Amino acid sequence: DEDLIATPVGTTLERYIMRKQAEFPFATGELSQLLRDIALAGKIINREVNRAGLSDVTGAYGRENVQGEQQQRLDMAAHIRFVRALRNGGQACAVLSEEEEAIIYTGNDQAKYVVAMDPLDGSSNIDVNVPIGTLFSIYSRVTPVGSKANETDFLQGGRKQVAAGYVLYGSSTMLVYTTGHGVAGFTYEPSLGEFFLSHPDLRIPATGTTFSCNEGYWFEYPAYVRTYLENCKRSRMNGRYIGSLVADYHRNLLTGGIYLYPPTGKNLDGKLRLLYECYPLAFLIEQAGGAASTGTEAVLDVTPEHYHQRCPLIIGSAELVNEYLVCAAAEVSA
Ligand code: P6P
C-alpha cells in the first residue's frame, strides 16, 4: 500500500481519515465517523450558503440568540443541520451551540464525544456575500457512557480538545482541522461532492505583515493595544479585517499575520466566545506553529467557567503575538 505518512495531495477526505486512523492501532473509528459527520454537515451548509440570496434564508429569523443578536435564518439552518448530522451520525452525545443557551442532547447517550460549535459565525455577513465559517471543537466525554452528558464534559479546558477545526465558505469552501497531529486543509469540489486534500501540513509563518482588528474600537482599547497597533503601522504592515473571524483567521494562517479581538469598553473580555471560537482556533494555531493569547495567558490555558463565556483573542504568527505581549507587559509594569 502507499506510504501511509506521505499522503498525496488530492487524496479525498475519506481516504485521508482512514489513513490517519490506520496510524493509531487502538482507534475504534468513532472519531473518524464524527469527522465525516461534520464534513457532511459542512457540505449541506455549503449548498445553503451558496444559494442564500436565492432562497428565502437570508434576513432575520425573528428571534434573538443567547448573544442577544438577531438570528439570521441561515445560522439557524446551519445550527439545525449540524445538530441533525451529529444526531444521525451517532458519535456525539451532546452539542453546545452558539445558537442555544443550554447543551442539546442528541439521544446518543452511548456516544463517546461531545461537540462545541458555532454553526455559522459572522452570520451578519451573509446578506452581503462576505465569506463565513463554521467552527467546531471536540472532547471525549468524561461522564460515564450511557449517562446524560453535562457541563463537566464541555468545561474540560482547551488542552483537552481531541479535535478542532472550521469550514470556510469562501471563494472556495475549505475544511481545516487537527486531531493533535498537525493541521490539514481540504478543498471542496462541489461537482463531485468531495473534499480533497489541498494543504497537507499547514504551518503559519513565524511572522507576517498583516494585522486584523476593528480599529473602530481605537478609543476603547487599552493603551497598550494602541501602542502595539502604532508599532504595526510604523512597520508598514497591512491592515486586513473582513469582520468574519474564520476568513480573517484563515488568511493569516496561510500568509502569516495576527488577528486581534482585545478587551474593549463594551466587552472587557472581548466579544469572541471561548468554547467554540477561541479554543478551536487556538488548538489549530498551536498545531500550526503559531500562538494564541488572551494578552495575559495562552488561550488554551484559560479556565472555562460557563458555556458562553467571552475571551480576548490575540492569535496568529508567534513573533507577532509575542510583540503584542511585550506591549501588554510594558503597560502592566509601568
Ligand atoms: P466586530 C462576527 O460577528 C464576529 O463574531 C467574527 O466573525 C468577527 O471577527 C467579529 O465578530 C467582528 O466583530 O466587533 O469587529 O464587528
UniProtKB/TrEMBL annotation:
Query: Which organism was this protein described from?
Result: Hymenobacter koreensis
Name the HAMAP family on file.
FBPase_class1
Q: Does the keyword Hydrolase apply?
A: yes
Broadest EC class assigned to this enzyme: hydrolase
Any signal peptide, and if so, which residues? none
Tell me the domain of life.
Bacteria
Output this protein's name.
Answer: Fructose-1,6-bisphosphatase class 1
> Which InterPro entries would you find in this protein's record?
FBPase_C_dom (IPR044015), FBPase_class-1 (IPR000146), FBPase_N (IPR033391), FBPtase (IPR028343), Fructose_bisphosphatase_AS (IPR020548)
Q: Which parts form a coiled-coil structure per UniProt? A: none
For this protein, the record's PANTHER family field holds:
FRUCTOSE-1,6-BISPHOSPHATASE-RELATED, SEDOHEPTULOSE-1,7-BISPHOSPHATASE, CHLOROPLASTIC
Which residues are involved in binding Mg(2+) 1?
Answer: E98, D118, L120
Q: What is its EC number?
A: 3.1.3.11
| Keywords of the record | Carbohydrate metabolism, Cytoplasm, Hydrolase, Magnesium, Metal-binding
Q: Which residues bind Mg(2+) 2?
A: D118, D121, E277
